[in-house]
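Database export, one record per block. Field names are fixed; values are copied verbatim from the stored entry.
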Amino acid sequence: MFNNFSYKLTALMTGCRLKLLNRDWLQQFCDLLRTNPGWTAAHVAARMSLIECFKSEFVAAYVNVLFCHVLVVLYIYKVVQKMAQS
């Protein structure tokens, strides 16, 4: 289980360049992988709204065609959210 967590955490940290290492983020990350151990780093990034991670080939390599559609919807949702906050 540790190898699964370690590999996916490395993928996200490499791809995102965000300050991800805080207690709440790590707890959410662990909970997601504990309940969905088969998820790729791309699944985790999408679920946690880490759009920036998909710029990384390391994460984007796990994206398939159907998942791209979900990602587009997620991206549009985030853009609309930011516009509503402005």
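Remark 1: Residues 2-85 form one domain.
Remark 2: The radius of gyration is 13 Å.
End of record.
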